[in-house]
Structures are given as structure tokens and as C-alpha cells.
Amino acid sequence: MMSNRAQGFSFIELLAVLAVVGILSTIVWASFSNFRQQQVLSGGTETVLSVLNQARSKTLAAKGSSRHGVRLASTTVTLFAGSSYAAGNVDNQTIALPAGVIIANVAVAGGGTDIVFDRLTGKTGQSGSIRLEIANNSAKSRTITVLSTGIIGTN
Questions:
Q1: DSSP 8-state assignment for residue 4
Q2: Predicted confidence band at 69 (pLDDT cuts at 50, 70, 90)?
Q3: CA Rg, the chain, in Å?
Q4: Which CATH code of 3.40.50.12280, 3.90.550.10, 3.55.40.10, 3.40.50.1100 fits the domain covering 11-154?
């Protein structure tokens, strides 16, 4: 005997499938967004660490018979030679942080935004911390610590 019922999906079944797909898509998108923010923040942290270590290494190697330092701005870090930053110096190397990462806070001894390393020892008088964060999400942040010995680390 034949059934009069048509084969196929009902409107309610179709809505249920669309709702499940929508929920799963939202979860995946949120996880991906979170992962991407962490990756961008890690990249920014590595950039700042690299420039700080480069300044310390150049100082210890007596490159140019000079001290070297780093100027920290909200979206850039600048490697410079000498005891203080000179804007417009052609030898300055300015590196941009990845888009979406900012230097939110620089808290170093003596104030300011420069960290300069001493020749022969690699020590610095500007020990303290640098906080990087995602520009639109301050809950995502990393802190770089510069010790007076010149050792640089992160948490």
C-alpha cells in the first residue's frame, strides 16, 4: 500500500538544521578570533623582545663604540645608537608592531619611553615593564620585564 505522505524535509527540520549550523559557526568563529588575537599579540611581543635584545647585543659588542637603546611608541619600536634618542637620525631603525597590537603602558625607572643599555655590562638604568595588548581588547595582554641587569623576559 502506498502512503500519501510526500518524501523530503519539513520546514521545521530545515530550521533545526540551520540553527545547529549557526551555533557551530559562531563557536568556530569565536575560537578562531581568539586564536588569531593570541598569535598577533605573540608576534608583537616577539618584535619588542627582538629589538630590545638587539640593542643590548649591539651595546655589548661595542658596535660603533656606542651605547644603544630602544624608543617605545604606541605602535612602533625604534632602535637607536647613543645615550639618548635623536628624532630624524638616519641610523634609527623603526619597526612597526603587527596591526592591532599596541604598547599600552611603559613603566620604567626614571619614567620615559627609552631603554638604553650600558657598554661592557649590558645593564640599564631603565628597568621596569612594558605592557602590550590587543588594541580593542585590553584583556588580552602580555608584559615584558627589563631587569636592571639588562636581562629581558616575558610572562
A1: -
A2: very high
A3: 25
A4: 3.55.40.10
